[in-house]
Amino acid sequence: MKNTKKTFIEKDSPRSLKKMELKRLHKKLKMDLKFDPDNRKLKKEYERVNNLLKPKAKRKDIPKK
User: Fold this and answer.
1) Separation CA 35–CA 41 (nearest Å)
2) For bias kind Basic residues, which ranges apply (predicted)?
């Protein structure tokens, strides 16, 4: 019997689930902001979620050890 690798399904990983939840929350906050643009709490939360969804920039100036 050969050693078979178990296929990894990306949708089942907790990281991707978290990302999907963030996207859902981002959409919801965006809609809420459309109806109430002056709400500071919503703006702050929207910015936080938006920053979490943005891909992190790779730093080239830091040398590898």
Assistant:
1) 14
2) 55-65
Residue type at 10? Answer: E
Non-local CB neighbours of 50 within 8 Å, separated by 6+ positions = 26
DSSP 10-25: GGGSHHHHHHHHHHHH
Question: From CA 51, how far away is CA 60, in angstroms rounded?
Answer: 21
pLDDT at 12: 58
Q: What local confidence, expressed as pLDDT, does residue 33 receive?
A: 92
Residues of the chain with pLDDT under 50: none
> And the tokens for 42?
């919503």
Tokens of 17: 């689930």
What backbone phi and psi angles, to 5 degrees, belong to 4?
Answer: -100, 140
